[in-house]
């Protein structure tokens, strides 16, 4: 089992202590910088929003960006996930049909 280290961060004026596997601190801090950038972009667009709404909007933006990320032969992550889900459903259906009595 890997060691967990505590990393202190601040987002939207709130302090958080987050546990992360040893050696993953830099990745966590990069994620914090990415989130800070999304938050700043949302705040610059003018509308005054409470911190919870800003955090949710930033998380949705990041999730949307992730799903648009290309994998393999130019396939978007969301399309890739749909294809995998479809293959799983097809496999489940084939198993169900193979377990039905022949007579």
From TrEMBL:
Pfam families the UniProt entry points to: ZapA (PF05164)
Main location class: cytoplasm
Query: Which InterPro entries does this entry report, sorted A to Z?
Result: Cell_div_ZapA-like (IPR007838), Cell_div_ZapA-like_sf (IPR036192), Cell_div_ZapA_N (IPR042233)
The UniProt entry's GO biological process terms, in alphabetical order, are: division septum assembly; FtsZ-dependent cytokinesis; septin ring assembly
Q: Which residues form the signal peptide?
A: none
Determine if Cell cycle is one of this entry's keywords: yes
Fill in the subunit field for this protein.
Homodimer. Interacts with FtsZ.
Q: Quote the protein name from its UniProt record.
A: Cell division protein ZapA
Localisation: Cytoplasm
Biological role stated in the UniProt entry: Activator of cell division through the inhibition of FtsZ GTPase activity, therefore promoting FtsZ assembly into bundles of protofilaments necessary for the formation of the division Z ring. It is recruited early at mid-cell but it is not essential for cell division.
Mind listing the UniProt keywords for this protein, alphabetically? Cell cycle, Cell division, Cytoplasm, Septation
Q: DNA-binding: is it a keyword of this entry?
A: no
Q: Which is a Gene Ontology cellular component entry for this protein? A: cell septum
UniProt superkingdom = Bacteria
